[in-house]
Amino acid sequence: xxxxxxTIGPISESTKxxxxxxxxxxLFRLNGxxxxxxxxxxxxxxxxxxxPNAFILxxxxxxxxxxxxxxxxxxxxxxxxxxxxxxxxxEMIIPLTKPLPYFNKKIREFSINDGQFYFELINxxxxxxxxxxxxNFELLPKKGLNISGSLYDETKQxxxxxxFIDTIKNLDIDGLGLSFVQTGNLVREIKExxxxxxxxSKIENSEGLKRxxxxxxxxxxxxxxxxxxxxxxxxxxxxxxxxxxxKETKKYGKPLIMATENxxxxxxxxxxxxxEIISLxxxxxxxxxxxxxxxxxxxxxxxLNTIKWISNHSKKIFQSTEAKQNNVALFDNxxxxxxxxxxxxxxxxxxxxxxxxxxxxxxxxSLGQSRTxxxxxxxxxxxxxVKLFRNKINVIEILSIEKNTSDQLRTCIKKYKSIVFDNxxxxxxxxxxxxxxxxxxxxxxxxxxxxxx
Length: 453
Description:
By secondary structure, the protein is α/β, with parallel strands linked by helices.
């Protein structure tokens, strides 16, 4: 069943609210762009007390410029607004939190708040864009500015990441959401700095889309931010982009999170729109593991109703919208293609994994098949990662992985026989043998239930 990643905000920050949310999901998101460090510390403490097995994701504020207004502002259709720094101007000026990205000066429009509100471009420079509003709307504080085809400075991006990571180093979180990731190299560098945290990369601009494979390969999971992505590449290209990112993510066996406007209509209503129901069905069909709720749970008084609705809905339609079978080739750089090709052909049997790095888990998930998977591991980071997958994975923590992995695996299977066989007479066991000619090698065994009587 597809899981719910709920954003905690001012409307859902109370102990009562978090307790209610924890009855439907153990996945929580905090947005580092909002609130102060003390607020986040307090919320994390509440979550840990109420839901000890929670997965907590902290989104790092990215390099994308946001409006620096502290209060809501009403913008009328036809208003000419300058965003950024422009000293000589009689028009309204709204400062930005960060410098503008590189962009084609021939663009005709730009947008605010994930492409919700558009402006006709009138003028632009290195530090500003001026545009005429195409609609009446309320500009809430700290809303992002999107310019089609933007290219963000990766050196500055890394600096933003590191500065934020330094401020939250004492927070008890499980993962970081990396905004506007454009290369796999940046993910690798951040992983070296916080090896204990899971890295969820957000693909949300044209450069990230172009280099999606290297980003996915180096990340622990992927989030598709449809709002920023559509605003950056154009609405007409969004559907194909979502399809290609999801296919590539599933190819590498990584968890996939769908973000932005999943159930926005329920902010003010008790039932979603039909278009949102169709969109959710599409997300389920392409293998999305988690549906992220943002404003739906952070600022809407209907947050609990929304969570209950999507929880019930996903249960009802999950069986009829199983992920498409993954018929693409396995990893291009796969170390043991023959082993996993054989496992793919032996369908329906449970898989048992003994893994320290989690590599074999990604390989098993890349098969795109529905079967029981049991993972024995001593890696707490991988134990947290399992919570993001929509497929049921039995994860059992062991003290350490021994040199004689074959004997250890047999011991584990015997101890948890009723779980790992899942009412089947055979299972597939995959483990790593320690060095053969100085190369680690995967092993594949087929066991019968009566071998462990």
